[in-house]
Design goal:
There is one protein chain. By secondary structure, this protein is of the alpha/beta class. About 45% of the residues lie in helices and about 25% in strands. It has 2 domains: about 190 residues, P-loop containing nucleotide triphosphate hydrolases (Rossmann fold, 3-Layer(aba) Sandwich), CATH 3.40.50.300; about 170 residues, RecF/RecN/SMC, N-terminal domain (Glutathione S-transferase Yfyf (Class Pi), Chain A, domain 2), CATH 1.20.1050. The chain binds adenosine-5'-triphosphate and magnesium ion. Adenosine-5'-triphosphate binds next to helix 2.
Amino acid sequence: MLESGHSQKGWTSPQESLRYLFMHITHLSLTNFRNYGRLELDLPLGSILLHGENAQGKTNLLEAIYYLATSRSPQADQDSQLINWDAAEAGDSVVVGRLIAQVATQAGSRHIEIRLIQEQGLSLRDGQRSFRRQALVDRRKVRLMDLLGNLRVVMFLPQDMQIVTGSPSERRRYLDITLCQIDPIYCRTLSGYNKTVEQRNALLRQIGEGTSSQDLLPVYSDKLIELGSRIFARRSLFLGELAREAQRVHYEELTKGTESIRLRYLPRLQENGSGSRGSVGPLIALSEWLQENQMDQPAIQAKFSEALAAAQANDIARGATSVGPHRDDWRFWINGRDLSRYGSRGQQRSAILALKMAEINWMNAATGESPILLLDEVLAELDEHRREMLLSYVLKSSQALLTATDPAMFTAGFMKQSTSMTVSNGRVQPDDD
Ligand SMILES: Nc1ncnc2c1ncn2[C@@H]1O[C@H](COP(=O)(O)OP(=O)(O)OP(=O)(O)O)[C@@H](O)[C@H]1O
Ligand SMILES: [Mg+2]
């Protein structure tokens, strides 16, 4: 790993700052992705403003980059929705959507690709069209999971507020996508853990129905404890770091020293009784215990094992595993109160902004490279001070893509430092200076 990009000597040599800023996409190529039939686009370093009328393909372009980085869409619930619908309906037996990014990093240049493959015939098994994905790094097939980390992004979306106000699953999703971008071991552990939860739940249902005995349960429980304890520890470490940075950014940069927020991990290391949103006290205590015992895997395993045993009878009755990181949550508090319930919209928005800025700083520190920033129509919602703060992050990053219907909201100074491009009906054209 690289040392920090800031030199101890108090100045930064050109090479050093170049290294620090390195990760960026030099070329993006899309085929049959959303409303892009075919796109070949060179991208410069620095900030890039994509402007155009509604429904032209601005968000789709950011989605493509996000998808290449995370293998997830920020919005589609089914990946088959990503394939260009004209191509899907043209009647060919196989339709391939293709996303390719040529990425420059401090380790050299990389070619990363995802193929979305849809067979047109209906499968005999479930009557659906078959759909699969392939990932390639430098033209060699890899598991989708192994694509992660080759391109790192932080995305800002108008619907990010759901991270505060939405369900715990939304917050876990954010957590996992962020961590997976820098920690492939975490990602593999998580995938194994999720499979184990499914298998254990299937067994719990069979036990409940009387079609299986309890003999096999310890096998799945042990695996769950082994993998789950590592996830608890990693999330605790990560959220601790992110919380500190988000609190700092919120206090120092966003609210000019007037308001502080607190972000806390709520690990489901114990059943939470009624399930009401108010009863977080015991989970906060567990969170603090985890902070102190992050490195002590046997202690975490013992605690998780105890919780599983205590929940076992209920779990059999319900046919589902009620404790474990798949039920984790984390939340913000403002002035000691739950932000999702008591915060104003402006306060919620500031918290999200602080979280994302902290994510950028955390990725910088963790990898020595600045992530690519993707901002979809978020500036219009911010007041002048917050807009300025966010734009300062944009101007510091190696590459940032911003969308706007109205470029007039950007200052002349900002426009001078940015490349602007017009998006129109699935085409992208750099503007003349
Ligand atoms: N699978 C698909 N195939 C073809 N077109 C699609 C597909 N999915 C979405 N689209 C269309 O792509 C167009 C562009 O969508 P996009 O969200 O990128 O617009 P936008 O430029 O961000 O607009 P806005 O300013 O309203 O946010 C829309 O008309 C949308 O209906
Ligand atoms: Mg849009």
